[in-house]
Amino acid sequence: MNQTEARIFGFFVATMRREQEWTLESLAHATHYSYSMIRSIEKGTSQIDKEGRDRFAKLFGFSGFLDNYDQKDTMQEKLQHIQNAHNSLLRERRQALLQEILSDRALAASFLFPEYLLAVLFELVLSDGSQSQFTALCRQMEPALEFFSVKELGQYYDLCGMHVEDPALKTRYFQQAFRYDPDSFLINLHMAMEAYFQQHLAEAMTCLDRCKARVFEFGSYSRFVQIALLEAQIQIDLGQVDKALSCLHALRGLECKKLDPYSSSEVLSLMAYASMRKNDMKSALGYAEAGLQERSGHPTLYMVAIFAAFRLQDPRLPLFIHRAKDNMKLDDPFSRRMPWNHFIDGIAAWNEKKYREAIGQLELCCQTFEMDPLRSWMLDCLIELARKAEDTELAFHYQQKRIDLFRIHMIREF
User: Which residues, at least 6 apart from 94, have a Cβ–Cβ distance to it below 8 Å?
Assistant: First the structure.
């Protein structure tokens, strides 16, 4: 057993002792080692033979301690495959690889214990585990970080970024992941998405360009579609709506047979949103209706359908509102953050010419998205509503916010 193996074994003993609530004294008594010997084992400064390692493992409920350090590279490759398969058509392969690792509990009592914990973290993040579970696991894993390769450290911080909700903390985690693995497609994709949601559009495009350079390595059409959709979103916010629509039409019209149902509905959602931002409400409503036929609970499609129907004075507006409240599915972080009911009630009040009530509802939406892509559009709506309410001072207030937002964007981009 070399020094690294001794430290890993010590980490295993310390972790299991705390998890199973053994004291140093009780563990020393059970193993017939001295108190000071147990402490040195946990620190990794004492080496014990296989018989001794097995004795500890059996006390913790395992059949023995596996001497498998030579399989570390193979395990790292499996974890890399799991990361690369995330959010692609390889989901089944990802689940199979995770199950292969996690179902083999003996790996926890082995020199691959740090990698086993990384697989546990993968499962926790992908299954949307609770914050308390995440915090406890990360605290448990902290001593294991010294045993990870640079790519495994990139995976660890990327998973942390995927789980946390706080935007600033999320960005820090992704930046840390990037420092360890700057060539990772997934890490660059997550950085691009987070930069986009914080409206750092130039930074998002830079990260996306790095993704494009790596996408063909995966041979995954779904990855190509994923970055094409994100690029279209960024183009819309940059005011390049026609360019975005051209890309989306190409995806929808030329390659639609290759799109999975989820991606197809996302294409229609962006086409609807782009048309709405272009003030082409007839096209926006048409795309939104087509998208809702494919994915009936999509919040953005309902948002576009309701706003476009309102603008077009379509008699089906009450029907869209009713369906939205009954069928909307908040199955992703963006959807869960958005106060959809305030938006829906705001448009309904606007339609009834209750301008003050509409302002109050949309103001709540605008506050939620302090730096979100929808903020500028919400401010445009509030400016129009203030004018409808004949409140010049309030209209000027929203105009100033709109100018300030533009200045912030300019400063961040240049």
Answer: 81, 82, 85, 86, 126
